[in-house]
Amino acid sequence: MNGPQLSELPDDAEQLEPYVISLRRSALQAAELSAVRTFSDGFLIKFLRARDFDVDLSLKLLLNYQRWRRESPEISGCLSPLSVLGLLGTSYHGVLPQRDHSGSRVLVYRIGQWNPKDWSAFQVFRVSLMTSEIISMETQTQRRGLKAIFDLQGWTLGHALQINPSLARKISSVLSDSFPLKVRGIHLVNEPMFFRPVFAMIRPFLPDKIKQRIHMHGADYHDTLGDFFSPDILPPEYGGEGPGIEEVCQDWTNQLLQKEKLLQQIATHPTADIAITAEDSLTSGEAETERLSEG
């Protein structure tokens, strides 16, 4: 079986076992991971799916992930939603309750809701990392990846001054080679002209495949987002027929708060077995769908 076929199998499929064993053996032998003695199956499968079960590439991704966490303790060391509750309360960030037509998760970031006088770029990045850690535990997201919509209305010089070359490199690393999620698309809307210098700072660090998945829609996004997302999943604010963006953001904030303990476990022991139930890994909409299908 090839990588994509293996990815479709459930976590406990016997065909996956040799790959998990091989990646665990390599990880335990890696000098950079000498302090880590436990790698749960679920943790390793995230990296294998992210690299279509190529063990060498999965190991490289795992090493990058651990290195990124070590070098970014100001972001990864604290994954508490309560620590950024004020920012979440502004409806800055949400995850759409429905996936897109390809099964990808769709994340929305409303940059104008972030006041850089109140919240540092590191704290804002922490919100993204918390969401990424949670959705990376979802089997369907491991298979289908994510797409992100960044609404840059309200972008100011204050925002731009928060993004320095070091942070730009950290952002690009997560997008490209340091996190076990496949980024399927990045969509920018309402981007002002003076956002371009910041984007120019990030762009050189991105691999070509990510650059090709970046789409700038400008102020006419109502006409063009529909080319990538069906109206039934998008909020009305973005030309769709789904739940409003305020509701989406509040719902996701509630879900992050419910996972406070889980996120603290991840921050402390990311490679170990995490106490998560099947329903914990679903949004409320997906959980309801699951219950109905079982009934």
UniProtKB/TrEMBL annotation:
Residues 80-246 form the CRAL-TRIO domain. SUPFAM superfamilies: CRAL/TRIO domain (SSF52087), CRAL/TRIO N-terminal domain (SSF46938). GO terms for cellular component: late endosome; membrane. GO terms for molecular function: lipid transfer activity; phosphatidylinositol bisphosphate binding; vitamin E binding. GO terms for biological process: central nervous system development; chordate embryonic development; vitamin E metabolic process; vitamin transport. Signal peptide: none annotated. Pfam families: CRAL_TRIO, CRAL_TRIO_N. InterPro entries: CRAL-TRIO_dom, CRAL-TRIO_dom_sf, CRAL/TRIO_N_dom, CRAL/TRIO_N_dom_sf. It comes from the Eukaryota. This is Tocopherol (alpha) transfer protein. It comes from Seriola lalandi dorsalis.
